[in-house]
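target protein:
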Amino acid sequence: MERAETSRSKDDSRVRAKLVPTDSAFPSIKIESCEALICSATVNSSDDKHQWCEITWKNDSDIVTLRNLSSNPIIVDGELIEETVVIKSGSEITSGPDKEGYLTYVFEPLPSRGNDKKRIEISLDVEHAKCSICLNIWHDVVTVAPCLHNFCNGCFSEWLRRSSTRSKEGISCPQCRSVVHSVGRNHFLHNLEEAILQKFSSLKRSGEEINLLNKYASIKSNIVLGMPKYPSRKRPHTFSDNGGIEVELPCFQCGSELGGFRCNGTTTHLSCHGCGAKMPSRPDIGVPQNCLGCSRTFCGAYWTTQGLDAQQFNVICPEETFKPVFERTILRIPDSVHRNNRYEKDVTERCIERTGKTLQVLISDWITKFGNKEIDRTNLQLNHPEMITPRTYLCN
């Protein structure tokens, strides 16, 4: 640890800070090291020097700590200090317990001239350094492209894991919902993240939260996220003619009668959005083939009325994919709710617990109110919301 003493030299090229006495009869104390023992006169009646305090910079930052080394308290900014205190530019430090008879110094940090070209101060709103998934300051920040939004490594890794198992249309950005092409760790913003937490220690998370994020984190380097292609699990229905030759047919009702119906040469066919299977378009039989909420085609309800069992014929959609609203049973909130945001999902679950009702009871109450038109439908993200009733077939 370097010893800092009084000096009348005008060379300040290596000086980090000064203690300037309020009594001009005494020289300033120049501090050149980030850890300095202050050795100077302490009373205005004597020039004898004593080691009476220690001044240190924390991790080469702007946080400066003073530690009292004398046997008596000292005064810093009007407060009696027996041990340590954080000081700032302009802090008044009296070398004893009373301003009368003891010297008072003003702490004046100087700009580091050697680093002027390498370090600049910028103004930043910490709200702009928060992850939009967990709403905390980034931890091990990653950046997605091309939208350039930033998230905690653990938060986005969990989002990526959940989205990869559900989405066939690519991974979307949790903030703007645009398709993500790549993601990687951002070392520049990581330094910014650390500087913010050093400046505002109240924003730091608990060790338990940090350990959980580190456990989830899977992004170690830049990752390119392609658009996955899912081949259809459907194969065209085959029909064997009398000559033993197999002919590929669009659906089960092409070439043979099923449920009292057989396709002819003019029959229009629909492709199921869920599995890719073909089925004849039959709007006149009263069996829904399109979801009223999204207008997409689903085959489960149609083939069930025609006598096909989805468990036996695994090339068609199960009945669960397309059924009336009132027949649905929901035992837990799906992971995909709130666009896969697990934090918003947790908040929703806690709100449900406070009602004292099960999720299924709340859903049933909601369906009843929906059917009685007690719920505003204008904000529902559905096609034809005014036409939907509890008996309407919707996809899941």
